[in-house]
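User: Some background: our group keeps a shared notebook of sequences we're curious about, and every so often someone picks one and asks for a predicted structure to add to the entry. Today it's my turn. The entry only has the sequence so far, pasted here. Could you supply the structure so I can complete it?
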Amino acid sequence: MMKKTLTLSMLLSCCYLFSQAQIPNPGFENWDNMGTYSNPTGWGTMNNTTSAATVFTAEKGTPGSAGSSYLKLTSKTTSAGVVNGIAVSGKLDSLTMQPISGFSYTLRPVSLSGKWQHMIFGTSQGSVSVTLTKWNSGSGTRDVIGSGSVTLSGMVMSWASFSVPITYALSGNPDTCIIVMKASGSTPTNNDYLWVDELSLDEAPAVVMNETVPSLGVAPNPSVNAWYIHGAMQTTARVQLTLLSALGEIVYKTEADNPLDIRIDNRQLPAGNYLLLCISGHDRQAIQ
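Assistant: Of course. Here's the predicted structure to add to the notebook entry:
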């Protein structure tokens, strides 16, 4: 039987090094020593204020859901009251507890996803939000291109996946992304916590040439650590996946059962664009 070849039309970008970037330090593996405390690289927290009282609302947890560490946000009591455990992907104003800036980002993801654990000791639940903006030179202000927010619910006592859908208000691409994570709501209680790991901004499902497979997706894209290939192809056969460099060289090859749910580690690959080929068919001998 003739084999069927499906080629993903999207290009996968490894170790993205252009003007836009993925989430800074998305797995919270890197931390900066600030003298009396540490902060996750690329993130603003309330530690620069609370550390004067030897109180730390953002701490490094080990081991991570994946990797060696994760971010522990905890609301804690100080002489001024309970301070919310907050982290911002950029700079945080510790007086207003509002983000000052984010990071450069020019894509239109469908969601923010990751792994979390959380619990509250009062009644004010924390949240995770993402906002995509673009500078409007005419008005001298920032336009909100898209945003999404999820309020925590109940408690999650072991690592679980979460997703924050993004709704778009304007056409066009953003230039900045801000992610805000809070252990508590407007009235924090001591020891409310939110632990987070493996953040990613997820692109729309892949458009497939020669056949429509709307449930086949690749995320995160671009990526700095790994791609997750998920979804179902219209076949009952096993699927061969081949990752090609921009020069057409095979840099990775494997087979997987359908539906697909695999992880491709790209940490050892050089920066650049890659193409993923998916090949399936009932004639196993025809698959090279």
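Suggested note for the entry: The two ends are 15 Å apart (CA to CA). Residues 1-21, 205-214, 282-288 have pLDDT under 50 and may be disordered.
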